[in-house]
Amino acid sequence: MFQSRLLGELVEALRCLPGVGSKGAQRMAFHLLERDPEGARRLSEKLIQAVERIAHCSLCRNLSENQVCDICASGHRDRSLVCVVETPADVAAIEHATGFNGLYFVLMGHLSPLDGIGPEELELERLEARLDEGAVSELILATNPTVEGEATAHYISEMARAREIRATRIAHGVPLGGELGYVDSGTLSHAMAGRTNL
Amino acid sequence: MFQSRLLGELVEALRCLPGVGSKGAQRMAFHLLERDPEGARRLSEKLIQAVERIAHCSLCRNLSENQVCDICASGHRDRSLVCVVETPADVAAIEHATGFNGLYFVLMGHLSPLDGIGPEELELERLEARLDEGAVSELILATNPTVEGEATAHYISEMARAREIRATRIAHGVPLGGELGYVDSGTLSHAMAGRTNL
């Protein structure tokens, strides 16, 4: 399709990005070549650096270029609190929005027997080992409010209960600024059932 | 925002892509690291190769990794026909859709005095030099049907007229498969004014 073989290869390579189709990849390639070769160079460099150096933290499984991530290595975090999330993006969101000062455990997914993802794939034995150490007093379950996320939270709460560690779940309900009329019925009935004393 | 400095740099670098914001860049970075490190490696390699080796064909200004692009170098193309387009994407589209077998001249833009883009920026002297050689018998103007595209077509047609070379404009009108009721009024009045004998 393209006169330049290399251009065709670049367009094809750009399609590995999620949400990028052939027209979008073509637009990206022309943009980089015509208007932003410096950006393309930097992107090329960062891609290869990231792929070669970023791995999982050996303690919390978050993405990190060090063997132990900055949060786990920090001396300023409350080591008795561990927040369990599904993805590194969730860690970023919680760090950005809340004052949470404990540690994390990143599942890199959720239990999903149909997809062959069980406790081994999520490396839950690492979480168990950490719970067994005795320093953790509360496990905050912040998995997504989906069927799989809820099942995963339930499974992990049982692990905590067996060790007499407190397990909590983040609150789910009507989002701030939301209007009741526009909130889906599942969320609304959840909010009603989970009402708290004023 | 990210615990990994390198991850933050990768997300920032991905934002040089057109149409990619911070959330999209984050999603791309996580996707590449988690699911497609091979794609990221290939993309990194192709980006640097493309930026370092793709330049403009010295004859038609199309993107090419050779000094003269494959179309200009081909012995099977009709050298008396030259089609003038705005971008390399237009060349790809015409090659893909039509049986056009002549050569191209890629303006890499259009005349736009307000943006400081005049005949020099489009390197129209190269086109003039080619017209002066005398081999070209028809210049097909396939710039976009925008104000700037029309002005550019008009300007170039004057160059052809001065050398007594035939200048033609691709047809504009109702697209095939389009319904008249859904076609914008500018296109429809253009189609009516440009009606041909049956």
Q: Can you describe this structure?
A:
Two copies of one chain form a homodimer. The first copy, chain A, has 198 residues and is α/β, with parallel strands linked by helices. The first copy, chain A, folds into two domains: 5-53, RecR Domain 1 (Helicase, Ruva Protein, domain 3, Orthogonal Bundle), CATH 1.10.8.420; 78-169, Dna Topoisomerase Vi A Subunit, Chain: A, domain 2 (3-Layer(aba) Sandwich). Chain A has eight helices and six strands; from the N terminus they run H-H-H-E-E-H-E-H-E-H-E-H-E-H. The first copy, chain A, has helices spanning 5-14, 22-35, 37-53, 70-73, 88-97, 124-133, 147-162, 185-193, and strands spanning 55-56, 63-64, 81-85, 103-106, 138-141, 166-169. The first copy, chain A, has a four-stranded parallel β-sheet. In chain A, helix 5 links the parallel strand 3 and strand 4. The longest helix of chain A is centred in the first third of the chain and has 17 residues, at 37-53. Chain A is globular. The N and C termini of chain A lie far apart (66 Å). The relative contact order of chain A is 0.08. The model of chain A has no long low-confidence stretch (mean pLDDT 91).
